[in-house]
Amino acid sequence: MKWSQTYIPTLRDDPTEAEIASHRLLVRAGYIRKLAAGVYNYLPLMQRVLLKVTQIVREEMNASGAQEILMPVLHPSELWRQSGRWETVGRELMRARDRHDRDLVLGGTHEEVVTSLIRGEVKSYRQLPLNLYQIQNKFRDEIRPRFGLMRGREFIMKDAYSFDKDEESFKVAYQKMLDAYFKTFSRCGLETRMVEADTGAMGGKAAHEFMVIVDTEGGENIIFYCDKCDYAANMDKASSLEENPQEEEESEKPLEKVATPDAKSVEEVTAFLDVPARKLAKTLLYKADGKVVAAMIRGDRQINEIKLENFLGCINLEMADAQTVEKITGAAVGFAGPLNLKGVTIVADEEIPRLRNFVTGANQNDYHFKNVNIGRDFKIDQVTEIRCAQEGETCPRCEKGKLYTNRGIEVGNTFMLGTKYSQALGANFLDVDGKEKPFIMGSYGIGITRTAQAAVEKFHDEKGIIWPASIAPYSVEVLPLNVADEMQTRVAFEIYEKTKEQGIEALIDDRDERAGVKFNDADLIGLPLRINVGAKSLKENKVEIGVRKTREVISVGQNQAVEKCKELLSDL
Ligand code: ATP
Ligand code: MG
Question: What's the structural domain count of the chain?
Answer without folding.
Answer: 3
